[in-house]
Amino acid sequence: MNLDAVGVVLRKFKKTEFPTLLERWSFAEYLRDTDVSGSKQKTVKLLAEACLENNIEEEDLAEADLIHRQLHVDSKRWTAFRIINKTGSARDEAQLNIPEVLEDKLNTQLLQFYDNSVCAVCLKDSVWLRVAILEGMPSVYYLIYHPHSSLLLATNIKRIHQQFVFYSFLRVVCGSKLKELKLQGKQAQSLADLVLHRRSQGRFSSLRFNQKDSGVLVRRKRRKRPIRVVHPYIVKEDEDIDKKRSKFVKETFGDNRLPVVDTVNFKVESRLLPNNHCGYCGPLSSHFQFQGSSVLNGIQALVEEGLTDTPLPPFLSELHTSAQSYFVIREKKRVEDTR
After folding, report:
1. For residue range 254-264, what is the model confidence (pLDDT) as tens digits?
2. Contact predicate 325/183, CB 8 Å
3. 207: part of which helix (H) or strand (E)?
4. Among 102, 140, 232, 280, which is 20 to 30 Å from 6 by CA?
5. What separation in angstroms does the CA of 99 have from each of 30, 107, 133, 310?
6. 140: which strand partners?
7. How much is the average pLDDT of 63-74?
8. Alpha-carbon distance 316 to 326, whole Å?
């Protein structure tokens, strides 16, 4: 281990992220006396020198890199997979909750195919895995496993490695198959919420967050409503439409903020009808993409501002409960009149 190798990993962090690194990193117990109040360059140098003095190993640097990925989760694109178990064999959930056990088992399985390095770290209710294939040109992949569920999130894995990485992981969790869901995005936590809490999105999210009134039968004093003074010459137009729109927004999207999905793709398969300018009549396929900081909240905002007609078509109004970011919309076939 040399100073440059340690510095490469430490320089990935922003200056404001060093306290978080020292809080989460297991190797940080040897770095407690290091001053991190100076400039980033000085801090990296001091930390790197302290790491070498305490005989840092590759596994420790891998853990630091994994912590950096947790802090910058949106710099990678994640794909959701469902673990399918057709064999009926039960997995030991208590053991799979322990990062060291999961790390050792995955490393053992993957050693059948590649020389590798596996690092596992817990974060909230999930286990983050860093899988490094050390043969040939080294490649690093990241997995997020949610114990007690069938959800796995993974970054893009090269085709030459994907089969072996997924096979080894399935052997560890006693699964028989991984089914790729039509769900991708940069916010891993939002993707997990869409899958794990699919039935409690929108207006049902208040139940998940325990926001319902627990004492509905308790008699309370009637709340005094403030008196609104409206100028006699000011007339609000389309008040009924506004009320109807507000009701639709509340019943469809609820009061809580929706999960963040940055891209949603639609493929529309329809038919091109003949006209005077074009005699072609046949299938027509078109693609549409919604992209932004939060597509779901953006659609809600469009409805609230009255920029869309209500009710929305099902593929938009049920977007937050579908756990998908890719849809194929097919035109319904018309029944020809045979009379």
Report:
1. 888 889 999 99
2. yes
3. helix 205-208
4. 102
5. 21, 12, 19, 48
6. 132
7. 94
8. 12
